[in-house]
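agent: user wants the full assembly modeled, not chains individually. Plan: 1) parse entity lines 2) check alphabet per entity 3) run joint structure prediction 4) return tokens. Steps 1-2 passed, two entities, 459 residues total. Proceeding.
--- entities ---
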Amino acid sequence: MKVLLMITTLTIFSNLAYAGEKLHLMKVHGAVCASCAYGLEKKFKKINGVKSFDVNFTKGTVSVCTDDNINFEQEQLTKIFVESGYTFKGEEIKDSCAQQSDSLAEKAKTKVLIPGKNVTITGIYNGMCDDGEDFYFVYKSDVLEVILPKQGIKQKLTIGMPLKVSGTVVSHGDELKIKATSVDIKK
Amino acid sequence: MFKIFSAIITSLVILNMTPAAAHGPIFSPGPETLYKDGFEVQAAYHRSKNAEATEDELAMGIAYGITQDWQIEVELPYLNINDNGSSNNGTGDILLETKYRLWLNNTFGKQDSVTGFLQIVFDTAKKTSNPSLSSGANDLIAGLAYGQESLIWQRWASFRFRYNGKSNTGVERGNQLFADASIGWRSEPPQYYESDTLWMVEFNAEQTQRSQIINTDLTNTGGTELFISPGAIWAYRNIALKGGIQLPIYSDLNGTQKASNYRLKFTLDINY
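--- prediction returned ---
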């Protein structure tokens, strides 16, 4: 019973910690170094209600945690990014700031998944399409998707099928794209 | 005659002034401009040595971003020169610079840009001689810098022309051409709240025309030098430390001039 109470209490505090906040997740083009992106931090932190600021260079995103009542106009965001030397490519609002800072696992992943690196990733098949003669393995927001050429399919894939894909990272922005050298489909 | 020699030496002292750029090459200008209303304070130490002379320079600079594409900067050096047993020290020539980004292309994880810049080196140095700190003239530098920065690789190239004014001793110091190419590399993409280390190699070419007095070439002036310059940048958000060494790999200097042994440069840049 004590254990149950402790878990309940932790859950309540955890939810309270993010109450009244929201996350502005913005796509940015041109952000390539921390010292260069400092201008963005300076401009956002001048705005009342802005609590924290972070940049994920690998994903090309700027995340700003604000009070729940703060909304940015598109023109305002475009101006901030342009005056900092970058290009604003869109905004997405999240209910919680909890996901602003990447987890350690996420940071480890982004350090590994850089273009040109050979990787092996295990995931769940989420669809298929014809994309030329190469194997491509794509994930979007932790949902994995395999793209295979018609000729290369020896195994009929079904949604939810576990896969192990090895290959070279082509790009890693909002989605990860791997040019696969092997696709191991587990039944 | 000694005055003439001193004036020529001074033209070498201010050879390596480059615009401040927290995340650009060390010995050559980069294309970066400050964000709008941003400030950058820079402290730099520079040493240049050849067989006959050692020149140490401490410089303080401040830059301001008028817009995201246009910045101005002023730099004040303090010099110490040792030349064949004689030494002199004091304030050097004040440098005023303006820099304008002519082209910018932001794409995912990459930034390409071209910047034009103009510098005026005012003849404000301490006027005592033996050896002289003053060139006795105002000089003008104009050039272009290109850069392509990505999460792992960086590439820079620049071209500069330096017009050296006629000194008050009557010496027409030779004008100079500079061409630079640099590559930078970091082992993994940067994280905003972690330090970022970038390794660089620059190739710097300098060509100096002969100096003249009363339309007569001075024998021991002018020539060409090429350098390879390894260096590194360590940065954490708005603070950057840069350091590198220029090592000569080719030298074709007129007369009996001594080639450079090495040049060192360290800078601390803070944006706010």
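agent: reporting back. Chain B touches chain A at residues 22-23, 32-38, 67-68, 104, 106-111, 149-152, 188-194, 196, 198, 235-240, 269, 271-272 (CB under 8 Å). Residues 97 and 119 of chain B are 4 Å apart (CA to CA).
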